Amino acid sequence: MTSQSSDHLRPLPADANLPRHVAVIMDGNNRWARARGMSGVRGHHAGVEAVRAVIRRAAERRIETLTLFAFSSENWKRPVAEVNALMELFLMALKREVKKLHQHDIRLSVIGDTSGFSNAIQKHIREAEALTRDNRGLHLAIAANYGGQWDIARAARHLAEQAAAGELDPASIDEQSFGQQLGLADAAPVDLCIRTSGERRISNFLLWQLAYAELYFTQVLWPDFDGEAFDDALEDFCQRKRRFGMTDEQIDEAQGA
C-alpha cells in the first residue's frame, strides 16, 4: 500500500455526506481471468491490487470502516485447488501487507469463523489484529469464512447461553443488545454496500448490518475496480436521499433545522 495525497482526489459535491461504513462484495476474479485465457487463481492474484487501491482510497476519503468480503462460508464448495490457492494468498497477504497497514495507522480485524483456517493463518490473524489494535485511522474488516446467517445464529446462541446461566433476562434482549453480539459490533451500521461484476444479490453477507444500507451494483469486475470506481460509488451514494422510514418532507425539515 502506497501513500497518495488527498489533494489529487476527484472533487465530490460540496455538501457530500460520505458513508461512515462501506462494505464490498469483491466479485468477478474468475470471469476476469477467463476472459484473458488465464486460470481463476490468476484472477484472485490480480484482485489483490484492487484491494490495495480500494483500501488506499477509503483511507484518503476518511471512511471510518471498510469491510471486504474475502471468503464466504460457502466458498469451501469451490474446487480444492482454488480453495488451496485462496488460502495461500490469504496467508501471503497477512505476511506482506499488515506492516504496511500498520504504517498507515489502519486497524485490521477479521470477522468470521477463523477456527476453520489453518493454524498458520490463525496465528497471523491474531498477530495482525494485535499489532494494529490501537491504530486510529481506517478500520479495515476482512470477512473470511463468514456468513450472515452464521453471524446471527452465533449471536443468538451467545444470548441464549447467558439467559440459561441466569446472567441475562430474555425480556431485555433488543436490537441493540443483539447487535453487540455480532461481528462488527464496534462499527457503525453499513451505509453503502458495493458489489462488483454485475451480480445483484448480497450472498449471505452482513445480513443484519445491511438493514438500511444503500446498495450499489457495478458491471466492473473486481480486478478492474480501482480508486476511481470506488469514487463513482461514493458519488452515487451522495446523490441518494436516505429516508429510514421517514417521508421526504420530514427529512427536508430535519436537514433544514
Automatic annotation (TrEMBL):
Matching entries from Pfam families are given as: Prenyltransf (PF01255)
Molecular function as annotated in GO? ditrans,polycis-undecaprenyl-diphosphate synthase [(2E,6E)-farnesyl-diphosphate specific] activity; magnesium ion binding
Keyword rRNA-binding: yes or no? no
- Active-site residues, record numbering mapped to chain: 27, 75 (proton acceptor)
Cellular component GO terms, alphabetically? cytosol
Q: Where Mg(2+) is bound, by residue? A: 27, 214
Extract the InterPro entries matched here: UPP_synth-like, UPP_synth-like_CS, UPP_synth-like_sf
Question: What Gene3D superfamilies does UniProt report for this protein, alphabetically?
Answer: Decaprenyl diphosphate synthase-like (3.40.1180.10)
Cofactor(s) for this protein?
Answer: Mg(2+)
List the catalysed reactions. 8 isopentenyl diphosphate + (2E,6E)-farnesyl diphosphate = di-trans,octa-cis-undecaprenyl diphosphate + 8 diphosphate
The UniProt keyword set, sorted, is: Cell shape, Cell wall biogenesis/degradation, Magnesium, Metal-binding, Peptidoglycan synthesis, Transferase
Listed binding positions for substrate are 28-32, 44, 72-74, 76, 78, 195, 201-203
Record-level GO BP terms = cell wall organization; peptidoglycan biosynthetic process; polyprenol biosynthetic process; regulation of cell shape
Q: What is its EC number?
A: 2.5.1.31
The free-text note explaining how the cofactor binds reads:
Binds 2 magnesium ions per subunit.
Question: What is the stated purpose of this protein?
Answer: Catalyzes the sequential condensation of isopentenyl diphosphate (IPP) with (2E,6E)-farnesyl diphosphate (E,E-FPP) to yield (2Z,6Z,10Z,14Z,18Z,22Z,26Z,30Z,34E,38E)-undecaprenyl diphosphate (di-trans,octa-cis-UPP). UPP is the precursor of glycosyl carrier lipid in the biosynthesis of bacterial cell wall polysaccharide components such as peptidoglycan and lipopolysaccharide.
Q: What do we know about how this protein assembles, alone or with others? A: Homodimer.
Family according to the record? Belongs to the UPP synthase family.
**What is the protein named?**
Ditrans,polycis-undecaprenyl-diphosphate synthase ((2E,6E)-farnesyl-diphosphate specific)
**Species per Swiss-Prot/TrEMBL record:** Halomonas cupida
Identify the taxonomic lineage of the organism of origin. Answer: Bacteria, Pseudomonadati, Pseudomonadota, Gammaproteobacteria, Oceanospirillales
User: Which gene name does the record give?
Assistant: uppS
